[in-house]
Amino acid sequence: MLLPTILRWMSRQPLALLHAWGAIAGWLAYGLSPLYRRRFIAHAQLAGLSRAQWRPAVASAGRMLLELPFLWLRDARVPLAPHVVWRGAELVEQAIGEAEARGRGIVFLTAHLGAFEVTAQAYAERWGARCPVTVLYRPARKAWLRDMVDAARARPGLATAPATLAGVRQMMRALRRGEFVGLLPDQVPPEGMGVWAPFFGRPAYTMTLAARLAEQSGAPVMLMRCERAPRGAGYVIHVSRMAEPLPPGSHADEAHAVACASAINRAVEALVRECPGQYLWAYDRYKQPNPTMALDEGGR
Fold this sequence. Notes:
- The protein is of the alpha/beta class.
- The protein has a single domain, classed as 3-Layer(aba) Sandwich (Glycerol-3-phosphate (1)-acyltransferase), CATH 3.40.1130.
- Helix 2 crosses helix 3.
């Protein structure tokens, strides 16, 4: 197929060039799709942003797309570390020490913000040999793309868990081994796997999995976001703790599940406000969830 060949060629191009092409692609998508443009503006305005605050996110969305060949398909011998600066690495070191001492892992949360695909790879490259990470993902629908992405994400110290019940159990086992797991809590889950909770003042169907993993394993929750540096200079990963702890209680209680989801949404909102010009504002965050069939044993 021609497209895989093009993607592999793109993976060998300089990151600055991919980001330049991506900025053009972002503005083309914004200009050519009225639905995309309306959703983008509506979501940004819902968060109370001015045009000057959300406008950079148009190009950022394209950069996210065009950098994927580099992240997924670059030669395994080409490290990501030279492109990454860490802010809060001492918090990761501390968390790994605590995980080793307690025998239970850490739940890391990021968002559809900046280069979120970078976070797990960069973590695994730096700390994966000491404390592996398992990340939740939704398999691509097209077989050729699914195979390519699965192979690309299979890196030392980094495991992937599909968004299925089997994948959830895989993540729980990782936490009980004292390892890390990573999720995007602003991803709309299938029906039955979430609750309605406020996100920038509007009800959004929000996953309960992140809080359930922390609750059932006793693992603390930390936050991570990856910001693109200007002109393709690389990435800056920011690590922090949640400003407020998850409320105590049982997740079997729906009110408690909503309280936990609301706390996580507030944490995601805080991340987004730190870098609104790199959030995926056109992501359909407020859509109705799909049926739960995506979370059966086989993931289909």
